[in-house]
């Protein structure tokens, strides 16, 4: 019966390929859009997740996410260090600055200032230069994509040694690093904390965050609660602050709605194409199913044949779709706009579940028609 089912499935090549195409298209569209959405949301917290040394982020109580900075007074650092369970705490600067090259090109950059002594918060993957070069006078680092954006048409590594200005303060590019792409597409620049606060416009407070490390054996959530209770500031674990930033963009922007509409359209189109084509395929083979019933095939055996046909086209279509999605991200991994976007196994598993559901629904609709077919249909014209 299985061989007969497969021969019936592949006998009409046009419908066979149409079924596979419908499932492959739905799989590709769903997996690609969901992967891009997840990658985009990850970017909103990339600058938190990149700082792997710190366990707890401390900030002003009014801060909602990483890009919303309300500067802290300098004494906040001492208050955090005094909390029991804190191994160390360092200042962290995050802000925007105007960067002017020697050619007169002006760009707004996302400026990050890391602790002068420990360099906590500095990137650890370097394309040119090294961590110690950040200690050189007037040193500034750029992520590779940022350097390519500021000096278009040139190799990012050629920016090494370039002199430039930030608010009339001389800086020299001492390193090109790999950093996770930010949500806001400004080039990311790194300086020492003392240097970052000196080249930016004067304000009463400059310290954006305090990064703290927990002593061994101290629970991170408990430490965050202690810091909040003792200092009156807001404190979150690294993962907690990352999720807080992601949740802000999920709830305060139209990104989830736009991607959700596209994903729902993919499901509806895929389901419509698959269900309609599979239903027509079964209808046009009713005589064959009737003949099988006439020679003694049961409804259970017929159902097994239909489910086998659905499983085969579903598996092939899913493999083509998910393969096309993987190839898409493989070929676009060097494109700055899609940097960091990957096909995750969770997306693969979820889309497989949705495709399976589409196949089951399409099969059940067709089976009802098969169960009602009269074997006498074989002997009619």
Structure notes:
- With 381 residues, this protein is of the alpha+beta class.
- Helices cover 50% and strands 17% of the residues.
- It contains twelve helices and ten strands.
- A six-stranded mixed beta barrel has the order 2-3-8-5-7-6.
- Helix 2 packs antiparallel against helix 12 and helix 9 runs parallel beside helix 12.
- It is elongated.
Defining key terms:
6-stranded mixed beta barrel, elongated, alpha+beta, 17% strand, 381 residues
Give a concise summary.
The protein is an alpha+beta fold and about 375 residues long. Helices cover about 50% and strands about 15% of the residues. A 6-stranded mixed barrel has the order 2-3-8-5-7-6.
Could you give the topology of this structure?
Blueprint (H helix, E strand, L loop, with lengths): L1 H10 L1 H31 L2 H4 L6 E4 L15 H7 L4 E16 L4 E9 L11 E3 L10 E5 H7 L12 E4 L2 E9 L10 E5 H7 L9 E6 L5 H12 L2 E4 H15 L2 H30 L1 H9 L4 H33 L13 H27 L10
Parallel strand pairs: 3-8, 5-7
Antiparallel strand pairs: 1-9, 1-10, 2-3, 2-6, 2-9, 4-7, 5-8, 6-7
Helix pairs in contact: 1-11, 2-9, 2-11, 2-12, 9-12, 11-12
* Protein structure class: alpha+beta
Question: Kindly state the mean pLDDT as a whole number?
Answer: 86
Share of β-strand residues? 15-25%
Number of beta strands: 10
Rg measurement, Å: 29 Å
Tally of alpha and pi helices: 12
* Oligomeric assembly: single chain
List the strand order in the largest sheet.
Answer: 2-3-8-5-7-6
First-residue to last-residue Cα separation: 25 Å
Shape: elongated
* Unreliably modeled segments: none
Helix content: 40-55%
Give a quick account of the main beta sheet: strands, pairing sense, barrel closure. Answer: 6 strands, mixed, barrel
User: What are the secondary-structure elements, in order, as H or E?
Assistant: HHHEHEEEEHEEEHEHEHHHHH
